[in-house]
Amino acid sequence: MNSAIKSFVSLDENQTSDSEVLIPKWISSQQEAVTAATSHDRNTVWVIKKPQLLNSVAHKIALVKAFKKAGYLILLSHARPALIPALEKKFARVAFTPSILSRDEFEEVWSLPDRKDRFIGGIVDEGSKTVTLWRGNLESVTVPFDAFPATANGIRPDFRKFSVVEYGHTVKFGAYESDSQPILFEFAPDFRRRLKQARFAEEQSLGASIRRLRRQKRKTRHDFRDIDPKTIARIEEGKIKKPRSATLEVIATTLGVKQTELGDY
Amino acid sequence: MPYDLPLPGSWKPWKVKIYDNELLCEEPHVTIVFKTTRWRYSLRSRAFLDSEPDPKDVREGIVRAIEAQFEKLCKEWDARFPTNPVTEGEEEEEV
Question: What pLDDT does residue B91 have?
């Protein structure tokens, strides 16, 4: 049996360790907004439901030049661009996410060591046809609608009905449910590296990587224009060790990545 | 809509699911869900894909329930993801 995925921690001055338990605190009054603005506690996740309270936070930060970093800030609403610079000076990470986990699940997820591999909330933008999802370390992942393809039996996402459920392991669009892992595999290089090391240690070749990416993209070996399926098979099986650049370019284009990224999967 | 394997009501909140969007670079599998924890059970090798979380922590009877409906689960997987079918080796035969 393969070993499980291990967490890798890369810390900068703004981040908390994955092993640290973060405490969510809900800001519902002016006084609590001032407390958040002047706090130095790195282990707090400040959550604001009412956008007007964000004014008090930003005003206080500017007033007292309170720029020593203090935890994370989540606004359960859309972003107001004018406030973002001040907030980003004060808080290690700032998220604007109208939709989050249920209150119980949201409270619990901050104590989980694998929280960065879960999504705590997100926002759908119909204009750009993208979904921005916030991980449990408040890093964002922006993915195109195309990352949620219909199943072969016709189940399609309804992007107007977005939610995150199951403690951040599941992204829902109406009746359509996506596991978090395919999203992280495609759009979060740190997750991909850990998965590759834990699950595919014996298959690190370029061909194996192309095969995994092809499968993830739901392509068959017949889907590569002007390349014989047998050639794709020989590349994947390592029988062709150094494919021609033109061949790799077609493969990369078909799979929606840069040629230099083909070995990353 | 994901496929949810019917389980006895008293087993709630345990679930066994096939999602509409899955990690297809892995073997076909079902996901066993219990609150914050998940396990993946391969439909090819009929074994757990990961050693952590510990498969021993899965509720007694879940694996039996999966095995009892194994054909149905394979059909549900294949209907969603025919490019990575449960039956191994099909792809190689195309070539």
Answer: 56
Q: Which residue has the higher pLDDT, A207 or B92?
A: A207
| Integer Cα distance of A43 and A72 in angstroms | 8
pLDDT at B18 over 90: yes
Of A2, A112, A176, the CB nearest to B20: A176
**Contact residues, chain B, for A166 at CB < 8 Å:** 33
Which among A152, A169, A185 has the least Cβ separation from residue B25? A185
For residue A80, how far is the Cα from the chain centroid?
A: 22
pLDDT at A15: 55
Taking domain A104-190, whether its CATH number is 3.30.2020 is answered by: yes
Q: Is A221–B95 a contact, with Cβ atoms under 8 angstroms apart?
A: yes
CB-based contact, B93 to chain A, within 8 Å: no
C-alpha angle A181-A183-A188 in degrees, rounded to nearest 5: 95
Classify domain A203-264 at the CATH superfamily level: lambda repressor-like DNA-binding domains (1.10.260.40)
Q: Count Cβ–Cβ pairs < 8 Å, chain A vs chain B.
A: 101
Q: Could you report the predicted ipTM of this complex, rounded to two decimals?
A: 0.92
